[in-house]
Design a protein that fits this description.
This protein is α/β, with parallel strands linked by helices. Helices cover 44% and strands 13% of the residues. It contains eleven helices and seven strands. The protein has helices at 4-12, 25-38, 55-68, 83-87, 92-110, 129-136, 142-145, 150-160, 185-199, 224-229, 231-240, and strands at 17-20, 43-49, 72-76, 114-116, 207-211, 214-218, 245-248. It has a four-stranded parallel sheet, with helices on both faces. A three-stranded mixed sheet has the order 5-6-7, covered by helices on one side. α2 (25-38) links the parallel β1 and β2. The longest helix is centred in the middle third of the chain and has 19 residues, at 92-110. The radius of gyration is 18 Å and the shape is globular.
């Protein structure tokens, strides 16, 4: 079980921290705890904004920062300018994390701060080359140091009354594109438009995987009945984003399944 007191001790060892803040359950919990532990003068939450970040995620970061009175800054990254990122091989995440560290490191240096990421113990078992990049450039993973799994993060967040405790995982939009398929601005916009359309139908936890003109929709198995009951609207929402074929993955939602 993750130890909140240990997390506070790990954070307090740093003079100041800059939190890579995506607004997900992990980074939100880390940012809130850092703010409560160190105070506003020693914490800055930074959100990297690019076409791979869904617009509603950026807006929620801003909303959380306002609700929690969290010092917050949004910065622009341009990973699409990197040909290796666009090529979308299995090291794409490393390229993305490099772009993030390139903009967040100077902010940390100005403040004599440590960059901290919301990586938890469960993340260590997945294919996430970006973690190695961040660690190699001096970033710290306080949740790992304090023994937090994803379930621990959610349980502790709920106990603390944080509304992010049950927020669905929302990886970058490029994670919807199979390795080897180029990542382009138009592809990312299609994915975002399709997922936005489905959220307007009341589906919250979902992925739209991109296969050219075919979209593979992933939702939890428990949501299958809802999808099928509104099948025409689901099809219309996905086709409106630019897809010709709309499929439902019968295995259900599996976060990070394109890594297998």
């Amino acid at each position: 079980m993750g130890d909140l007191a240990a997390l506070r001790r790990h954070l307090d060892r740093h003079e100041r921290v800059v939190v890579a803040f995506s607004g997900g359950a992990d980074s939100a919990f880390l940012a809130w705890t850092a703010h409560q532990t160190l105070g506003p003068d020693r914490v800055l939450a930074v959100t990297a904004v690019s076409p791979s970040l869904a617009g509603f995620e950026r807006d929620d970061c801003a909303a959380l920062a306002q609700e929690w009175e969290l010092p917050w800054l949004e910065v622009r990254t341009d990973e699409l300018a990197d040909a290796a990122y666009r090529a979308n091989d299995t090291d794409r995440c490393a390229r993305c994390k490099t772009a993030l560290m390139d903009v967040i490191e100077p902010l940390a240096a100005e403040r004599d701060a440590t960059v901290v990421l919301g990586v938890n113990l469960d993340d260590l078992g997945d294919h996430r080359p970006g973690q190695a990049v961040a660690a190699g450039r001096g970033a710290a993973f306080p949740l790992v140091e304090a023994g937090f799994t994803k379930a621990d993060v959610r349980a502790t967040s709920q106990q603390l009354g944080l509304r992010t405790w049950d927020k669905p995982a929302a990886a970058c939009l490029a994670s919807r594109v199979p390795y080897g398929t180029p990542v382009t601005l138009s592809v990312l916009r299609e994915v975002e438009a399709a997922e936005t359309g489905l959220r307007h139908l009341g589906l919250v936890d979902l992925r739209v995987r991109h296969y050219g003109d075919l979209a593979r929709v992933e939702v939890p198995v428990d949501d299958f009945d809802r999808v099928l009951a509104r099948r025409p609207e689901v099809v219309e929402a996905v086709r409106a984003a630019g897809y010709r074929y709309v499929t439902l993955d019968l295995e259900g939602l599996r976060s990070g399944n394109l890594n297998h």
